[in-house]
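[step 3/7] inverse_fold.run input=structure_tokens len=401
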């Protein structure tokens, strides 16, 4: 019998309270390990989760795992982190939700914080400059490869291709990234509703998405005016990002550049690229880039505030969306909104990649590194973490001569 449908494995997803301490310890041990070895981005994280939770431990059936995977794609935030939170909740209730999510995030947070401390103290040394000189063009190649793969999945029709071009043009024109994202979702939803026969069951309620949109609007105002640096404005900014970011974690680039570099000028373009490189190079969620930026701007308190701000919405959305998963998955309107939001995300990614490419590809060696990384990614499917490490070594050697 296929274990994914066996009653024994299904029963293991519900555990009595008497086993709770043991279950929490098992969750902590597993997700601390996964957070430490989880290189390669969300897709690699999900594959590790499936191997450990479904095949090895049989905590979830394959169908249950797929249900959770579909759910995390319907809410904003880092998908792999939200998957860990969902698994923890299924295994050990609300305490499990907190333990699994925190333990998956913690290793990368500590690693990134240590690197940030070293960067602040030694960042001006030629050796460190050479390291990032080689890493930056590799990051551009990694983002382009992700953009290509996501585009093949998201741009499912000619109308969505035109929407992506329009969203990119709006982003170039300086339209706020939140308006681009939710405007794209609303446009596709309205078009699909207009071409769909009325449902016999009446209007469709989208409470999960309805929660995200008001939060995006209310927190989006933080990004309008230029602000002096402070822990509270930084917390609100990262709370906004964690609350509205759909699609790949690479869309994070667009939000960081729009506010922290262009509007508020808290970071330089070079510092942003360094922060993204650290997030890509280290294991765990790419969102730990916020830890690095928080440390650069506000030391250890800034790192803590930024990390809590960007990851807190993931815990909230998983807690709220869990009971709503069946309704959201059946809703054609929710699917249309997400189609549009994903297209808008791709447009933002394309625009910000162009800007960052100008800053990273400064001479022939950096161009060569970017091309080599792209070839290795596309044709040989080399893990991006190894490419980033190779770029760091190459950059150090080039700058040493």
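[step 3/7] decode complete -> sequence:
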């Amino acid at each position: 019998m296929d274990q994914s449908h066996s009653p024994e494995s299904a029963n293991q997803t519900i555990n009595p309270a008497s086993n709770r301490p043991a279950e929490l310890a098992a969750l902590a041990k597993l997700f601390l390990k996964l957070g430490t070895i989880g290189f390669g981005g969300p897709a690699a994280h999900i594959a590790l989760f499936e191997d450990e939770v479904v095949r090895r431990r049989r905590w979830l059936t394959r169908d249950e795992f797929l249900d959770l995977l579909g759910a995390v794609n319907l809410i904003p935030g880092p998908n792999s982190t939200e998957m860990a939170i969902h698994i923890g909740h299924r295994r050990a209730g609300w305490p499990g939700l907190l333990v699994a999510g925190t333990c998956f995030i913690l290793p990368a947070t500590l690693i990134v914080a240590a690197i940030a401390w070293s960067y602040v103290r030694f960042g001006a040394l030629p050796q460190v400059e050479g390291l990032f000189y080689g890493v930056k063009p590799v990051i551009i190649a990694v983002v382009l490869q992700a953009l290509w793969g996501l585009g093949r999945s998201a741009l499912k029709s000619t109308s969505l291709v035109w929407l992506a071009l329009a969203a990119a043009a709006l982003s170039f024109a300086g339209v706020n990234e939140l308006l681009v994202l939710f405007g794209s979702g609303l446009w596709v939803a309205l078009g699909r509703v207009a071409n769909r026969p009325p449902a016999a069951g009446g209007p469709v309620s989208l409470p999960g998405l309805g929660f995200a949109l008001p939060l995006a609007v209310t927190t989006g105002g933080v990004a309008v005016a230029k602000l002096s640096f402070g822990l509270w404005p930084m917390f609100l900014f990262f709370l906004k990002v964690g609350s509205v970011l759909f699609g790949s974690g690479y869309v994070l680039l667009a939000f960081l550049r729009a506010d922290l570099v262009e509007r508020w000028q808290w970071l330089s373009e070079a510092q942003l690229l360094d922060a993204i490189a650290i997030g890509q190079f280290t294991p765990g969620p790419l969102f730990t880039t916020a830890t690095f930026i928080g440390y650069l701007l506000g030391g250890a308190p800034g790192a803590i505030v930024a990390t809590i701000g960007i990851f807190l919405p993931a815990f909230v959305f998983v807690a709220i969306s869990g009971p709503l998963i069946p309704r959201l998955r059946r809703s054609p309107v929710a699917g249309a909104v997400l189609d549009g939001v994903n297209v808008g995300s791709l447009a933002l990614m394309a625009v910000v990649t162009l800007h960052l490419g100008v800053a990273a590809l400064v001479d022939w060696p950096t161009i060569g590194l970017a091309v080599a990384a792209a070839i290795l990614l596309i044709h040989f499917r080399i893990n991006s973490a190894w490419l980033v490490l190779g770029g760091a070594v190459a950059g150090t050697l080039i700058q040493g001569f």
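[step 4/7] annotate
Residues 79-122 form the longest helix (44 residues).
Residues 1-12, 199-224 have pLDDT under 50 and may be disordered.
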